[in-house]
Design goal:
- The structure is a single chain.
- Strands 1, 2, 3, 4, 5, 6, 7, 8, 9, 10 and 11 form an eleven-stranded mixed sheet that branches.
- This protein is mostly beta strands and 181 residues long.
- It is built from three helices and eleven strands, in the order ααβββββββββββα.
Length: 181
């Protein structure tokens, strides 16, 4: 029985402390560290994650999630001291160079939340790649303003809840209910 468990990997992983990636695809796309901040129903949420490509070069072309009416790819830029957001059509994914969606950089916008995102909850987010197709990951909700000090960037981790305006560049979106980007 022990040989069978070792051969199947059921005994090895727990003993070695190994954890599985959030999502993996046969094409070599691996999605890890998917997380979101707490947000209120009807407002805007956000997803951060890391995409690693061990196959051929690809492009992240979109995303979807049942928790939002619309899901889009965005980037945050510093335009002479003013933080702005703009939508992006696609993000390159290169073997050996993980694509990190993180605060104050690239991220996934969850527009028109259909439910509140509460700390500790999880929800699916499906990423669409030009070559790999759809890869679904599970995002874990952290408290508003969550993340590490490195994640908080130049805005100091300040929470944008409560109707604050966020400069938005081309998107023109009021980020009133969204956490800091």
């Amino acid at each position: 029985m022990r040989r069978l468990l070792l051969a199947s990997g059921l005994l090895c992983a727990p003993l070695l402390g190994l954890t599985a990636p959030v999502a993996a695809d046969q094409s070599g796309i691996v999605v890890t560290d998917a997380w979101s901040r707490a947000a209120v129903v009807g407002r805007t949420g956000i997803v951060y994650l890391t995409v690693t490509d061990t196959g051929v070069p690809d492009r992240l072309t979109g995303a979807s999630s049942p928790v939002a009416a619309k899901v889009t790819l965005h980037e945050t830029i510093d335009d002479h001291g003013v933080m702005k957001m703009r939508s992006v059509a696609a993000l390159p994914v290169q073997p050996g160079a993980p694509l990190k969606l993180a605060p104050n950089g690239y991220h996934i916008m969850l527009e028109g939340l259909k439910q509140s995102l509460q700390p500790g909850q999880t929800f699916p987010v499906t990423l669409t790649f030009a070559h790999a197709g759809a890869v679904t990951a599970t995002a874990t909700v952290q408290k508003a303003g969550g993340g590490t000090a490195m994640d908080q960037g130049p805005m100091g981790g300040k929470d944008m809840q409560g109707g604050s305006q966020h400069a938005t560049g081309m998107s023109g979106m009021n980020m009133g209910g969204a956490a800091q980007h």
